[in-house]
Amino acid sequence: MAVISGVNGAVYWNEGLTNTAAVNSILFSSGDKTITSSTVGGASSGDLIIFETVGYKKDMLITLSGAGTTENNRTFTISTVSSGVITVTEAVTSSTGTGNTDTGAVLFLEAEPGYEEAGFHNWNIDYKIDLFDTTAFDTSSGGRSYISSITSWTAKADKYFLSTGNAVADWLGDTVKARFFLNYVATPSTGSPTQYYEGDTIVTGIGQGTPVDTLITQSINFQGVGVLALTTRTTAWNI
């Protein structure tokens, strides 16, 4: 089995964003591959999804369902986000409803694997299991006996401080799914799989160091919730 270089590692964060658009409020455009939250179909401005404000980002994968233009019920990769407009890299089928808006109540769901906040350069996981002492007078024979109990885990990731778009302060106390990649592959396959630890986490602390002679760094502490799973993926994310 080949060894793995740390240069392949990454930390991916999945906020689990989900938003349902009002009927006749989403405009699909094949010409410029845009998905726009619009009032041209009769939706009120209060019903619009302001994508940038609610947290959609470049390189995030989003899965759409419920669209009347059924060809758009698929996973898209975001290339740019600007207020109420998302530009994607995949083919978009233009909608043909009222004012060219889609007639469905389109559901937007953040897809796997999430996105990488730029600047992560290190992560580590402490994965352990509790033990119960079962030593009794008739079984000790001069040594203790144990049975295994439940597992627990914590993680820490280190990143460089970003002067813009540095959203980590908003993570404190949040429960989200995080993936810690041993080997990140943009398009996994059987011959080139991606491998990662995955689990739900609560962000319990954010630290910052500010030296005078190098980059400003931040550390993020995660408390694992439930099972930590080691996963090997051989199929593309964008399916």
How would you describe this protein?
The structure is a single chain. By secondary structure, this protein is an all-beta fold. The chain has two domains: 96 residues, Elongation Factor Tu (Ef-tu), domain 3, CATH 2.40.30; 117 residues, no CATH class. 2% of the residues lie in helices and 45% in strands. It has a seven-stranded antiparallel sheet with strand order 2-8-5-6-7-4-3, with no helix packed on it. It has a six-stranded antiparallel sheet with strand order 1-11-12-13-10-9, with no helix packed on it. The radius of gyration is 23 Å and the shape is elongated. The mean pLDDT is 88.
Major sheet strand order? 2-8-5-6-7-4-3
Distance between the termini: 29 Å
* Percent helix: under 10%
Percent of sequence in beta strands: over 45%
How many domains is the backbone divided into? 2
Structural class: mainly beta
Number of strands: 13
| Global shape | elongated
Please count the helical segments.
1
**Rg, nearest Å:** 23 Å
How do the SSEs run, as a string of H and E? EEEEHEEEEEEEEE
Low-confidence regions: none
Give the rounded overall mean pLDDT: 88
Largest sheet: 7 strands, antiparallel
Task: Describe this protein with a few key phrases.
Elongation Factor Tu (Ef-tu), domain 3, single chain, mainly beta, seven-stranded antiparallel sheet, 2% helix, six-stranded antiparallel sheet, 239 residues
